[in-house]
Each structure stands twice: as C-alpha cells, then as structure tokens.
Design the sequence.
C-alpha cells in the first residue's frame, strides 16, 4: 500500500463556507504548507519570517477550488452554505513559490524523493501492534499516515502482515531491530529507506510519547516528540524524514 506524492505546489485547508475572509485565512495556511512541501524543510513551519507573506498569500495563488465535505447532505434551512465545511484546494504559482523559498534561503527539493518504508509500533495500555497496510486495527493510524505523507509531498509504503512475518519483524522492540533487517524489509515493500517509530500513549499528558529513527547515507538520525495526537506525530515524523532527505538538517 503506497501513498503517492501529490502535486508539490498544491495544498489544502479546511474552511467554513466560501466567503472571502475565510478563503484568505485558508490561503495563508496553505502557503506555509506548500513551502514546507516543496522544500522538504519542516523547519519552515511556524517560521516568523513567513508572517510578512501570509497576509498576501493570495498573490502566490494560481488557482483554487472547493470540495464540500458534506456533499450529498441536504442543507438545513437555517444553515445555508456559509456554515458548511469545505476543503479549500489551492494550486500555487511554481516560480513565485521557488522565488519565495530563495528569499528565505531555502532550495526547492525537486529531485527524486526516496520512498519511505514506514514501520510504526503503537502501544496503548495492553494493546500493542505494528501499523500495517492490511490489518483492521491499523485502519485509523494507516489513514493518518497516508494523509501525512500527501501533506508533506512524500511517497510511503506500509508493511503487510505477511511481509512483517517474512522479515521476522514484530512489535516487540521494533526500534531495536537491526538496520540491515529493516533495510531488507523496506526494499521488499518497494521502499528506499526505512522510517521507524514507536508511539506510547501517556495518560498523564493525554497524548502520545513518540520516538523516531532513520538511517540515511550511513548516518543514524533520531528524534522525539511528546504529548501529541498521532495525526500530529505522523505529520512531524514524515516531515522530519523529508527534512533529512532533502538536506535541510535534522528535525528539532
């Protein structure tokens, strides 16, 4: 199961209605996302230098459209269309985005992007499992990983239950599996590099404590994040991997 990288210069945000005020807010959100997506530099997320460009984000837009999240659901008389949730899908001008990245001292990452073979172990109380492409318990985190990959412009593959068994990989200490075994497992899935993660639910923080590791060009990389939803954990993990692979440094 793979998530193909979407158009690098396209991003989307959820907005309420199709009014101009919310559209401007959506453009600003999408501008930051597309800058991260095109460059692979997750460190641009929240960069204070972007504040000067958010208010004029529409100047970088080539085209946009809406997708009604409630398509097929009748509109209530008192609701109208202004309160309905929409996906605002925005295509940005390639040259303007490249020039803006240049002004920020960042190079667009337009070369081949390695395919990430993602191995994730999740633990919540007595429940432990590895996220796979075909097991039912993995459905929610699997969809979240695929969405995170699309958001960051990466292609990922997830292991099948049979593939894990063949490689001898299980959820017991996944982060301690030798990199040579992970590399073989990644290659069998069609991946170029293995991204390995472990998420443990922390009741005290009402979030996941996560640790991630990836070996690239002979160098190991490790990073951690705590107290987050698994959606945010996956976005930060795949974004962190993209930052390493694009040559923009280690994730913070």
Sequence:
């Amino acid at each position: 199961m793979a998530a193909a990288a979407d158009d690098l210069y396209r991003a989307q945000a959820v907005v309420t209605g199709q009014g101009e005020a919310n559209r401007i807010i959506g453009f600003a959100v999408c501008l930051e996302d597309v800058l991260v997506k095109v460059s692979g530099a997750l460190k641009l997320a929240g960069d204070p230098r972007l504040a000067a460009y958010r208010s004029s984000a529409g100047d970088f837009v080539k085209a946009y459209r809406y997708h009604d999240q409630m398509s097929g659901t009748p509109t209530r008389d008192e609701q109208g269309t202004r309160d309905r949730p929409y996906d605002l899908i925005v295509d940005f001008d390639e040259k303007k985005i490249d020039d803006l990245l240049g002004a920020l001292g960042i190079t667009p990452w337009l070369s081949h992007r390695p395919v990430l073979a993602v191995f994730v172990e999740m633990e919540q109380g007595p429940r432990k499992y590895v996220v796979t492409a075909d097991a039912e318990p993995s459905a929610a985190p699997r969809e979240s990983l695929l969405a995170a990959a699309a958001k960051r412009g990466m292609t990922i593959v997830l292991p099948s239950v049979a593939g894990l068994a063949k490689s001898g990989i299980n959820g017991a200490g996944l982060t301690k599996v030798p990199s040579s075994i992970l590399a073989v497992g990644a290659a069998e899935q069609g991946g170029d590099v293995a991204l390995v993660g472990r998420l443990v639910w922390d009741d005290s923080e009402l979030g996941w404590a996560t640790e991630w590791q990836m070996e690239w060009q002979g160098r190991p990389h490790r990073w951690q994040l705590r107290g987050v939803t698994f959606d945010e954990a996956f976005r930060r993990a795949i974004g962190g991997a993209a930052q390493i692979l694009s040559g923009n440094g280690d994730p913070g």
Observations:
- Strands lie at 2-3, 10-16, 61-68, 85-92, 116-124, 127-130, 156-157, 193-202, 207-216, 219-228.
